[in-house]
Amino acid sequence: MSQQCAQVAKRADGILAWNRNGVASRSREVILPQYSALVRPHLECRVQFWVSQFRKDAEMLEHIQRRQRGCLNDELATLSEENQVELEKVQELGLLCQKRKMGEIMVKAVSFEKTVIDELKCDT
Predict the structure, then answer these.
(1) Contact between 2 and 56 (Cβ < 8 Å)
(2) Could you give the CA distance from residue 82 to residue 86 in angstroms, rounded to a whole number?
(3) Is residue 108 part of a domain?
(4) What is the pLDDT of residues 10-68, one digit of tens each?
(5) Spatial separation of the C-alpha atoms in residues 67 and 73, rounded to whole Å
(6) Residue 14: predicted pLDDT
(7) Around Cβ 87, how many Cβ atoms within 10 Å?
(8) Which one of 5, 15, 49, 114 has the largest count of C-beta atoms within 10 Å of its C-beta?
(9) Residue 30 domain-assigned?
(10) Whole-angstrom Cα distance, residue 122 to residue 59?
């Protein structure tokens, strides 16, 4: 299990390095969509099949996300107050943090599903 986690972390770290070195703009509008499209799905599709049983595995995956947050925090210092509120909303939605328990992820998924169903009922 630890080898799988190391491989996932190495690949995600490589994606972040590619993103940092290969992208001219470090603005939030560029970094966040790339992270959401490349790194986060890579981590989620691997982690959902095995819950990190070892603390060091969870810490390794969270280190990748802290590194990404660091890129955003550098940009956050230059953001206006309105944009800071938007970034806080993204963080509240859990787009930038890895949950250690699958139960918490499932609760979010179910609550999201309920809100979508409620919105669809209101539209009809």
Answers:
(1) yes
(2) 7
(3) no
(4) 777 777 777 777 777 767 677 777 777 777 776 666 665 555 566 666 677 677 767 76
(5) 10
(6) 79
(7) 19
(8) 5
(9) yes
(10) 42
The verdict on residue 34 lying in a domain is yes
CB count within 10 Å of CB 29 equals 9
Are 96 and 67 contacting, i.e. CB atoms less than 8 angstroms apart? Answer: no
What is the per-residue pLDDT for 107? 57
- 100: three-class secondary structure by DSSP: coil
Work out how many domains the chain is built from and give that number: 1
| Amino acid code (one letter) for 65 | Q
* Model pLDDT, residue 78: 55
| Residue 15 covered by a domain | yes
| Contact indicator for 79, 28 with CB cutoff of 8 Å | yes
- Residue 100, pLDDT > 50, answer no
pLDDT (average), residues 88-113: 56
- Looking at residue 2, its amino acid is S
Contact 80, 32 (CB under 8 A): no
Side chain identity at 72, as an amino acid letter? Answer: L
Model pTM score = 0.38
pLDDT (tens digit, 9 = 90+) per residue, 114-123? 676 676 676 6
**Domain around 71:** 2-98
